[in-house]
Design brief:
globular, alpha/beta, two-stranded antiparallel ribbon, 17 helices, 13-stranded parallel β-sheet
Amino acid sequence: MHHCLLIDEVLNNIFSWLGPGATLCNLARTCRAFYEPAAAIIWQKLEDFSPILRLLPEATRTAWAESRESESDCDEHEPGPPIVLTRPLTSEEWSMVKRLSQRVRNLHAFVNQRPHSYSITPGSLSFLLQPPGDESLESLFPNVQDLTFHCEGLPSLEAVRWQDNVLTLLRILIRPQLSWLALYPDGRLYSLLNASGILTSCPNLRVLQTSTATFETQEGARVTVAPTISSLQSLEMANIYNFSWDLLASLAQIKTLQRLFLETYHGLPDSPLPLTNEAFAGLRYLDTHITSWELVLSFYRWMPLGQLRGLAIKPDDFGRNDYSEDMEELLTLIPEHGPFLETIKVDCGFAFPRQPRHWRLTKSILMPYLSLRNLKVLDITLASPRYSPHLTDDDLIHMAQCWPLLKQLHLKIYTSGWELPTGLSLRGIVALIQYCPDVEGFSLVFNAMEIPETAYSPDGNLIQNRRIRSLYVGNSPISSPEAVATYLRLLMPGLTTVSTYHAMDSTHKMHWTAVSASLRDLSARSAQP
């Protein structure tokens, strides 16, 4: 064997490209030199506890029958039979579990009352948490850095005992070295988790994924709870499902928070408290998916966007006849609250209004965006043909002059093309390329029926953009595909693909298909020596 293969760092680099699987297992069995580096990668990520439980045949049994007591709970795609512990571990078994757990860096822990191949039952957990002799639970999983934790379906009659076991497991897994945590416990556990102070044990946490949870008290009241995160003062990214105003207020005080992802499918019962001037001071990117226009507007009236660089909004409200006024207010709020924005994406494409009135996205609505001198991406998707962009060449020229750093401009309708006639022509497209030299793509509907003269800049150079490879023209009208292809090729030498709205007029669609074919042919010819 070559001496370089006796160096662990070299083997770690090679083996890391293989990923866990049969190949690594075979390498681990090849020789002593390969065993440690291969085993370290094999056990580095543990999707569930079953790989460890399978190595304890005398302390476990399969539980197919229990997992299939209810046909609705049967999962035909489970990779193997659920395994449950039947007794506490012996010293030898404990030593093996301890040794393997010390290799784990990324752990997915699922606790569920009903046995599954991917989860551990509360009963098995109680046996696992009974170390023999003088052994300590602290020796289990001491090096976990990324943790995903789910807990659901705990029986109410034995909830106290099971909850204690789950909290014990969390105390073991949540330690100072933890940097990534996805936490989704049963609703009843949140109060106990918050009272226990377990989350204060991971002050170096960088990424958090969690959600609020709702449960019913003994008195029949429904209570919504969330984890207490005020101690996570090193947090850089948070992904919150079904957020609450209180949880957001806690996040607002974390100065290191840079990226925030929010998603909710229900309204919030209370009103938000006012924020201080220092709220979300470090936040640079915000992504929201909210299924209520009322909550969308409440959130963005409340949320400071002053330091944001990137913003993505997806409002999916399927119960509205018309939401054009709400949409216009939202589009107005964005530039008013976000003077330093570089990327703006608003996707209303999946929220189809039932009886939309006629509304146009015009320059007057986009006028506040002209002050965003650092804007690089503007992407607005509308849902209905009744909601249509409408711009003139002069409008686009003015916009392009105000956005010298622009890379992407997309104004489109998810279900159709623009309302025709469009006010844009190839003259406006030339101006976009002239004043935005870094532009890499755009989605606009323009009149390509008339071909303007070849465009030159004031210094006499040909106006060209070599970055653009593809563009979306929606339902742009066209009459002479060969002439358009030649002109676009001269304007954008790298352009090879032009896509259209799939249900546009067949004649125009055929012409744009011919344009794409001509562009590819011209590109192939230019590539020939």
